[in-house]
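Re: beginner question about structure tokens

> Can someone show what the tokenized structure looks like for a real chain? I only ever see the sequence side.

Sure, here's an example I had lying around. Input first:
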Amino acid sequence: MRLFHLIRDDDVSGVSGIGRVAEVVELENGKVVVGWLRGAKTVAVFDSLDDVIAVHGHEGSTWLELERDSDLEQTPPARGTYRAARALGHR
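And the corresponding structure tokens:
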């Protein structure tokens, strides 16, 4: 499992704000759980990280940041950010 934060540079919808707006967990089976940190604080399940960005990416103004000190990581993945061009309409 890997833990990310959904980072929003610009709040297009006017609902979630900017900065860290959600916690994101990628499960071993590829499913992704998103827990919102503001507003209604709902939880949603997606089929992939690409799907999260496709729905919430707002044309690049929202992205995923890998939590570097995640206790969930068994094998250290590549560090950095996840800005998927495929999820922005380039599949």
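Each token stands for a local structural state, so reading them left to right follows the chain. The chain has one domain: 2-88.
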